[in-house]
Amino acid sequence: MRVRIGFTRYAEAYYFHDGEDHSSLAAMIGYAAVPAQRGEAAGRPDVRLAGTLLARALKDLADILDQRFLRTGAPPTEVFATYAADQGRDGAQS
């Protein structure tokens, strides 16, 4: 939620780059889709709920990134890959 608020209130935050490629949000956010998808498909209701909450949070962040900066109209995984490429990160995961 803090990231979403940061991008919403402080658009300039999008243009600041973390010095560490392996730990930057742009490089790593795409990887979060995997546990979200697996969680949503899990047999346990509590794990499904956690997966759904993570997927919704990722979609919300992707929507903000796309609406305010990228304008791709793509699904979250593609938005995150575009974000990573735009930030010069090789760690994009789609």
Characterization of this structure:
- By secondary structure, the chain is mainly α.
- It has five helices and no strands.
- It has helices at 2-9, 25-28, 33-40, 45-70, 76-86.
- The relative contact order is 0.20.
- The model has no long low-confidence stretch (mean pLDDT 87).
Comma- or semicolon-separated keywords:
94 residues; mainly alpha; 5 helices; 61% helix; globular
Count of helical stretches:
5
Largest sheet: none
Provide mean pLDDT, rounded.
Answer: 87
Strand content: under 5%
Calculate Rg over CA atoms.
Answer: 13 Å
Poorly predicted segments: none
* Shape call: globular
Distance between the termini: 22 Å
Helix/strand order, N-terminal first: HHHHH
Strand runs, count: 0
Report helical residue fraction: 55-70%
Structural class: mainly alpha
Quick overview:
Helix content is 61%, strand content 0%. The protein has helices spanning 2-9, 25-28, 33-40, 45-70, 76-86.
Layout of helices and strands, plus pairs?
Blueprint: H1 2-9, H2 25-28, H3 33-40, H4 45-70, H5 76-86
Helix pairs in contact: 1-4, 3-4, 4-5
